[in-house]
Protein: YceI family protein
Organism: Cohnella rhizosphaerae
Amino acid sequence: MAKSAWGIDASHSSIDFSIRHLMISKVKGTFHTFEANVNADADDLTTADIELSIDLSSIDTRNADRDAHLRNADFFDVENHPKLIFKATNIVKTGEGEYDVTGDVTLHGVTKQETFEVTYEGASKDPWGNQRAGFSAKGKIKRSDYGLTYNAALETGGVMLGDDVAISLELEAVKA
């Protein structure tokens, strides 16, 4: 099958993350505003062109004060670095409907290569005749790799925030 352009249906998609807090629990959040440019054969992602852009100001951890802090210069500094960009550079099929998608992540002015495990969840037509495909992805980045080093030492040892950020995506794509 030939490559086709696909858009993301944001109302049926999500980009979520979690990070350790006080070394005893995890705080979760989501980004509400994102877009992707995808040119792919939904049945074989190995030749796909994928670029994802996340509006970092759309962060939501269900706490307005924390979200404001995450937007400021201690963390994302959205005034100077408003987006996280992912551009796929290599896609390897690892199993039936399973892929390792490696690409350049640009965050906070730093670009690093990261790999995400992607699962093709299937495709179908919606009631209006549009072709749709579903994908799940997960991965992990180290925030310190991107200069996001704000933290505080705990009197009991350890630090307030973990370095690893787990990322998960549920994406529903619509063929253009």
